[in-house]
Sequence to fold (170 residues):
Amino acid sequence: MGKKFGKLISELKDANEVFSCDSFYFATGFKLHFIFRGRAHLFRVNKNTIQVDQTLQDQGPKLIGEITPKNLRKALCIAQHIITLAFAKTPKCSEYNLCCICFERNIEVLLVCGHGFCEIDISDWKKRDNTCPMCRQSICQQKMYESIEFFKDDNEVKQSISELFSLINR
Fold:
């Protein structure tokens, strides 16, 4: 098994955990499952696709389309973003509303990748490193982070869900 294929299998496992968790279901109302249908010895990052099924409670999985390995990474970031947005509005002291660094203060800042932090911790981190403390995605200087105050309405979650489904080829 090659390194790229091994990395894809790891990403599929991570994606299936996030897209099938109760938090994602609470935020979106649905669960997704990803399955690689190719062969490991024929694996090509830009040519293979991954089957996307919607998990239904009363029935078996329903095929909704395919996604490329590159877009799977984007979809995972969007899903984490959706979960963070949905739970950033939950009552204070909820485990989903706590800073990912200190686990003491509420989320005040949301990075583009979807990870949330208190203002103190992310400012301190930014002095040392220019990447997200959780996923190491680069923090763009022009859009270093967005304040939770900009996400007061539900349109942000709806737009993120729409962006997620635009990555899936039907």
Notes: The CA atoms of residues 109 and 147 lie 5 Å apart. The longest strand covers residues 31-36. The mean pLDDT is 76. The chain has one domain: 3-166.
